[in-house]
Amino acid sequence: MSSNADLVFQSYGRACSQPEFFERFYTIFMGKSDDIRAMFVNSKMETQRGLLRGGIMWLIMHARGMPDTKIRALGESHSKKNMDIHPMHYNDWLDALIETLEKFDPEYTLELGQTWRATLLPGIQMIQNMYHD
Ligand code: HEM
């Protein structure tokens, strides 16, 4: 029996091995609002896509029981006093990720999408809660 975090890990492996995965993610994510698009105007997206690959992996590893050091680092960099990423944007982030997975994981189902959400949520909430710290 695979745990939910294992199912998510395997799904990520199927999806993120395709080079267009992260490109499509940012197209979908930035399409969610002008505010989000504006935050990346000066970003080198090729670098950013590589960083996100690792960031999602940290969230999955956290769900599999890894210590929260990397998640706390994301909470710190995305906090008000650093990059100032308001907590409300994480809903769009997660929706964009699920929409991208739907397109790239050939074994995607609605249930798997829900499993993804439930698995990443604790790590995302930890990042959101560090906004004001
Ligand atoms: C849990 C979800 C997220 C993950 C895993 C994530 C991951 C990352 C990572 C790994 C970096 C590289 C710098 C660092 O390590 O801190 C980064 C930078 C960044 N993230 Fe996020 N991020 C998330 C959510 C968001 C959201 C919701 C926004 C808001 C629009 C956002 C905007 C940015 C921006 C603007 C940068 C800097 C880009 C640059 O260097 O030009 N992130 N993110």
Task: Summarize the structure in words.
- Helix 1 packs antiparallel against helix 4 (45-63), helix 2 crosses helix 6 and helix 5 (69-77) crosses helix 7 (110-129).
- Helix content is 71%, strand content 0%.
- It has a single domain (4-129), classed as Orthogonal Bundle (Globin-like), CATH 1.10.490.
- The chain contains seven helices and no strands.
- It has 133 residues and is mainly α.
- The radius of gyration is 14 Å and the shape is globular.
- The chain starts with a helix and ends with a helix.
- The mean pLDDT is 96.
- The longest helix has 20 residues, at 110-129.
- The protein binds protoporphyrin IX containing FE.
Summarize the structure.
This protein is mainly α and 133 residues long. It has helices spanning 4-16, 20-30, 34-39, 45-63, 69-77, 89-104, 110-129.
Task: Supply database-style keywords.
133 residues; mainly alpha; Globin-like; 7 helices; 71% helix; binds protoporphyrin IX containing FE
